[in-house]
Design a protein that fits this description.
Layout: E1 5-10, E2 13-14, H1 27-31, H2 33-37, H3 41-45, H4 57-64, E3 79-83
Antiparallel strand pairs: 1-2, 1-3
């Protein structure tokens, strides 16, 4: 069964075709971006040079969790994707 995006919103507003977002991917997913997401590295680089922020997602958690404060989570932007 194929899935498709029927609605994509951020902060309660519909995402438009020309909206741009900063995305973070693990190296594994970045290397397979064209295969899995249909986006070439050249297309990504048109919007800026990609930068490696961490080697693995676990490194991000190790850096983040010591400073974790649930109050910081209130009102943070969320992307909501509804799939059929």
């Amino acid at each position: 069964m194929d899935s498709f995006i029927r609605q994509l919103t951020m902060n309660g507003k519909e995402v438009q075709d020309d909206d741009m977002f900063l995305a973070a991917l693990e190296g594994y997913h970045y290397k397979l971006m064209e295969t899995n997401f249909g986006i070439s590295r050249e297309e990504v680089e048109q919007n800026g040079q990609p930068a490696q922020m961490a080697a693995e997602a676990s490194d991000v958690l190790i850096d983040y969790l010591p400073n974790y404060n649930s109050a910081k989570l209130t009102g943070r932007p969320r992307v909501v994707i509804h799939m059929d």
